[in-house]
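Q: I have 400 residues here and want to know how they pack in 3D. Can you give me a structure?
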Amino acid sequence: MKAALLAVLALATPAAAQTLSAEIGANGIAPTLARLKAQPEPALEDIFAIGGLHFLSGIERALQLQWRSGMDQAASGAGDTLGIPLLRLPLPPNPDPDPFQGALVSQLFADLDADMQAARTALATLPQGEDFGLDLSFADLWFDVNANGTREAEETALTLVGRQLMGWQWQDPDPATPPLVVRFDAADAAWLTAYTHLMSGIANTILAYDPAASIDRVLATRAAFGPTPPSEYPSYFDFETFADAFAMLEGAVNQPPDATRAKAAKDHFLAMIAENRRFWSAVARETDNDREWIPNDRQSSALGITLPPGTADTWLGVLADGEALLQGRLLIPYWRGEAGQGLNLGRMFDDPAPVSITGWIQGWSAVPYLEKGPVIDDTSFRQFEALMGGNAGLMMVFLN
């Protein structure tokens, strides 16, 4: 009996003097998440950590599926050329991958959506108005890509996602640079919740036009033709990869979509905007300046990224335009036709249809969504671009 009690206490309590960050570094995401969830009454910072680790677990499971199946190489046309999230990360090579099938892409995004929901479920239990602090060193973050339970150099988080999240300067950091440590607080829970909605929105958009059959058709065509010999006149433009990617895209979107998934995607994007507003409202009330993730105008970021004064209002202006598009209050301009009309993006999610790419270029596919009304302009986005001074793309990923 006593031995059993000691075993339970060992599971529920990390090693003495070991921070949560160090525990992740030593044991990994999944074991740390399991220990935290086993606690009967987790502290506020542990609840935030459970949400954050569910988010990171979704990324880790996606990377493991890619590595196990060789998906990052087999679906490179879809990942690199089309920019599908998670299919563009620099994974270590798998010398003996399992056979790849298009259904694995569908599984990847279905699993990701489920993990994002698990993260939101945990974060929703945080009481409003109560603060906490959780110190996290990015040097402790790693993804067990090959699922062997052992941390390897190429599995470090910054090696895998540093460039996508923080720009070129974090791709190969100076070894002498002190570890990047962020203190996450209550406001950051809203930011993380917003990001889970963004990821779920992307996942449901892809699943609404399930690409599995289209990917399998393209891969079968590759196998039937065999490898293409190197060109006598090499070019920076890889037409074969482009053709495969275009065929994957056209085959995926030009089929009857899952309307439930499309509507869910729209709801997630709108929820992302709402959580962004909650985040910036909470950040504006902060008076400390302690290793901030995203700072207000009186704070500085632990990441070394400088946010110009007015970032919050400018970014919220961009999101307000996005919300107006999703709600159909603003329309998307189209290249042909008279002024004062445009396309209703919200109805594209509410009443989705097969997408003919040539039909959208010519216009016949766009006609069902054509309406008269105010058309969006690029004023808010141009203001954001001007404020960010050339870093607008990076900041859009960072701020979500």
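Q: Anything worth noting?
A: The first helix runs from residue 2 to 12. The first strand starts at residue 134 and ends at 137.
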